Every structure is written in structure tokens, then in C-alpha cells.
Amino acid sequence: MADKKTNAALPASSAGLLRFFEDETKGVKVDPRIVLAVPISLIVASWLLDILLIP
Fold first, then answer.
1. What global pTM score does this model have?
2. Does residue 7 have a pLDDT over 80?
3. Residue 20 in contact with residue 11, Cβ under 8 Å?
């Protein structure tokens, strides 16, 4: 018998542009909060350096 998950129809989407799958891909998994926190902290640090070190 075939696995039901492999024969399942694709989810309906707006004009077929978006399709979401539950399959996990291999690779590094990073928390979204870290992805947002790192660039924001770098921006704030550069602003503080600019304000405090340049008269």
C-alpha cells in the first residue's frame, strides 16, 4: 500500500503561487527572535558608537 502522505493532493492556494509543505529540510535551525535581535542590536550599537565617539 502506498503512503497516504505521498499521494495527498497539494493544498489550494491563490492562483497556485504559494504552496506550504510540512517537510523539514536539513540545515541550521535558528530561532526567529535571534534573526531579528542580531541586526537590530548591531544597528543600535553602531548608533551608540557614532553618538558617543564622534563629537
1. 0.51
2. no
3. yes
